[in-house]
Amino acid sequence: MDYGLIGEKLGHSYSKIIHEQITDYQYEIHPLSKEEFPLFMKEKNFKAINVTIPYKRDVIPYLNEIDEKAKKIGAVNTIVNDNGKLTGYNTDYDGFYYTLVENQIEVKGKKVLVLGNGGAALAVLAVLKALEVGQILIVKYKEEDGCITYEEAKEKHFDASIIINTTPVGMYPNCNDSPIDLTPYQSLEAVVDVIYNPLTTKLLAQAMERQIKAVNGLAMLVAQAKYAVEHFKNCKLSDELIGPIYSKVEALLKNK
């Protein structure tokens, strides 16, 4: 494999379609079990890869270098192999930043609930901090240092302005699941779900019923792929590529 995506369960992925529309290489979807993952990283039989759940933190010990942004975030989703030297980057950050700007979601000074604290959440948190969010609360099912529970969120933080789901809850094929009930949250201005398949998760559908701005993860996916290709090919690409590819993938998802 020259270029591709590694992760544990990749049946839902549209990354191959996206990458092959951005540039001229063949992009492979390469699922890896937790047992297969260490050998794959040690063998380094690739030119450049993207990394998804659950390996965005697990890849770090195998890297020779990690850029400053990815180091601060603590997660890597893009790796370039330069003659055996592996360098890690995080383009989820750029993809999420693009999503907020493109959808005119203003977070400065706002109270934001971030659901989950995995690899995607780390990039989301870094963007929110850079944009001077007022208060960030990480929500998890179990009590954990630095996090609050869903019950605590409902009881004490029902005045949150924005909710961002970074968990896989509601992802295809479990489309009837939702990580949180929006009913108690009466001050919501926007709900963002980093899931893109389905385009409208149960969480986003509930937001739309209340005329709350609802944004899925497709723009983040396409944008982070564009920024990843820039690292893969050591080039600069226009953000104008993102819109047409977004529309093509959106049409594919709608016609499933």
UniProtKB/TrEMBL annotation:
GO terms for cellular component: cytosol. GO terms for molecular function: NADP binding; shikimate 3-dehydrogenase (NADP+) activity. The keyword Transferase does not apply. Residues 5-79 form the Shikimate dehydrogenase substrate binding N-terminal domain. It comes from Lachnoclostridium phytofermentans (strain ATCC 700394 / DSM 18823 / ISDg) (Clostridium phytofermentans). Pathway: Metabolic intermediate biosynthesis; chorismate biosynthesis; chorismate from D-erythrose 4-phosphate and phosphoenolpyruvate: step 4/7. PANTHER family: BIFUNCTIONAL 3-DEHYDROQUINATE DEHYDRATASE_SHIKIMATE DEHYDROGENASE, CHLOROPLASTIC, SHIKIMATE DEHYDROGENASE. GO terms for biological process: aromatic amino acid family biosynthetic process; chorismate biosynthetic process; shikimate metabolic process. It comes from the Bacteria. Gene3D superfamilies: Leucine Dehydrogenase, chain A, domain 1 (3.40.50.10860), NAD(P)-binding Rossmann-like Domain (3.40.50.720). This is Shikimate dehydrogenase substrate binding domain protein. Keywords: Amino-acid biosynthesis, Aromatic amino acid biosynthesis. The keyword Metal-binding does not apply.
